[in-house]
Every structure is written in C-alpha cells, then in structure tokens.
Design the sequence.
C-alpha cells in the first residue's frame, strides 16, 4: 500500500468516527441502574457528552418514579408544579433538540430532595 493510500485511509477512518460521534447517540439515564433514588446523576452526567440529535432515555418503574422537566430554580428547590413537561410511562425518551442546559427531577415523594435529579448540558 502506498503512503498516500495509507494516509487517505487514516483520514477517512478519522472523519467517519467524528461523524458517528455526533448525534444519534442514546443516553440511558443512570446506565444499568436507570432512573431511581440514590445514584448520583451528577457523576453519571459527567461521564457523558450530550449533543443535539442525541436521545435521552429515562428507564424506571412507573409505579415508583416519574420524570419532570423543570427550570434551574425548580431543580434546585425541587418544585414540581408548574413545570415544563411531565412524563410517567417508565420508558420516556426525548430527542435533544437544542443546545442548552436542561433540568429533570423525579416527581414522586421526596425523591428529588433525596437527589433524584439530573442536570445536563447539551452541546451543538
Ligand atoms: C421556574 O419554575 C418555577 C416553578 O417551577 C416558576 O415559579 C418560575 O417562575 C420559573 N422561573 C423562570 C425564570 O422561568
Ligand atoms: C421504550 O420505548 C422505545 C420507543 O421510544 C421502544 O422502542 C422500546 O421498545 C420501549 N421499551 C420498552 C421496554 O417498552
Ligand atoms: Cu423517584
């Protein structure tokens, strides 16, 4: 293989992996533990890079938890009503449509106060 072909292959491979890193990734909140009480979602989010076009999936027992999208103030103070959106199917997924910070809390009991809350920063 000539050096030129070799370089070309490296370039193509590198750009393909860049493309595949952008958009379309599904982030299962909390990984295997899902959306529940007590995992540290700050730690979980630290290990993720969220881009526009990715999907955020909340996986949980619908009898035990829910998902409420709120603003920053409501996130800090665990205010459930009014909110931006509420979900309770146990399998709630959203496509991340814009580059922005987003906040989610659980709407059941004192779960939010116990730390069942997630803040993510969606990059372009
Ligand atoms: C944030 O949400 C709370 C209620 O959840 C509401 O009272 C407040 O006005 C909102 N703040 C902004 C800046 O939208
Ligand atoms: C969760 O929802 C997705 C579609 O949003 C669907 O493809 C998947 O089968 C659902 N999973 C379960 C366990 O219901
Ligand atoms: Cu909960």
Sequence:
């Amino acid at each position: 293989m000539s050096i030129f072909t070799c370089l070309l292959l490296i370039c193509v491979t590198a750009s393909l992996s860049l493309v595949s890193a952008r958009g379309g990734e599904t982030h299962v909140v909390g990984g295997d533990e899902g959306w529940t009480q007590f995992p540290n979602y700050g730690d979980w989010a630290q290990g993720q890079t969220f881009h526009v076009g990715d999907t955020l999936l909340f996986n949980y027992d619908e009898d035990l938890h829910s998902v409420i999208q709120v603003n920053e103030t409501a996130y800090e103070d665990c205010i459930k009503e009014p909110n931006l959106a509420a979900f309770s199917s146990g399998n709630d997924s959203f496509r991340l449509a814009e580059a922005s910070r987003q906040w989610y809390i659980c709407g059941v009991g004192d779960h939010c106060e116990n730390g069942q809350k997630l803040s993510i920063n969606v990059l372009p």
Remarks:
- The chain has a mean pLDDT of 88.
